[in-house]
Write a structure and sequence with these properties.
Two copies of one chain form a homodimer. With 118 residues, chain A is an alpha+beta fold. The first copy, chain A, has five helices and three strands. Chain A has helices spanning 22-29, 32-40, 60-73, 91-97, 101-108; strands at 46-47, 76-81, 84-89. In chain A, helix 1 (22-29) packs antiparallel against helix 3 and helix 2 (32-40) crosses helix 3. The A-B interface holds A 22-24, 26-27, 29-32, 35, 97-101, 103-105, 107-110 and B 22-24, 26-27, 29-32, 35, 97-101, 103-105, 107-110.
Chain lengths: 118, 118
């Protein structure tokens, strides 16, 4: 089920809403860099190329891995769009399965993790 | 600051309320065995000896490590009491720093992680 190609063109697997596991979601959100990505998606979907890392020391290859952990936990969708990819937060699925969790985490996130795109 | 003695008699270090870090709290709660321990403390403090692991395959030495991760993240207190130790959930501190987070997690935890002592 795992792919070694970081980002093949096309669809990537996403767990169904019913398959989301609390532990995996908490783990995905327990990393500041991953949480910072999620915070960027609160206002709406974003081209992956526009999604940035708040920590400039993080390698671009790590960015792919961060996206993957978030996607496999069911926190974000990563879908092909034209030549690029679009990231979106699975807010409805998360709110349905874990009511209040996402809001509690986002409102508690350090300000550096709530950067908004201008 | 770290101790190699798993559970010395006496006081162990606990982070102050202001020192709690969201990422560390989420990480501590992202493990089912750790979350199961937290669930046992919802009703009140518990002697560590009475705190059990829901997964019987987990070694007792691992139990000490689970407690340590929870304590160092500021999720629980682990304090000496007579010849034993008492564990308690730092609910007030967690609610103060991360409003709604603990309740959202506890209410979303799988039933196996909400076992109550009888």
């Amino acid at each position: 089920m795992s792919e070694n190609i970081p980002f093949p063109v096309g669809e990537l697997p996403h767990p169904a809403r019913e398959e989301l596991i609390l532990s995996q979601v908490l783990f995905a959100l327990s990393d500041p860099a991953r949480l910072a990505i999620v915070s960027q998606l609160v206002e709406g979907p974003l081209d992956m190329a526009r999604c940035y890392l708040t920590d400039p020391t993080i390698a671009k290859s790590t960015k792919s891995h961060l996206m993957r952990v978030l996607r496999e936990a069911g926190v974000i969708r990563n879908e092909p769009k034209g030549r690029g990819r679009t990231l979106s937060l699975r807010r409805e699925d998360l709110d349905y399965r874990f009511p209040g969790l996402l809001d509690a985490i986002l409102s508690s996130a350090p300000s550096g993790e709530r950067l908004e795109l201008t």
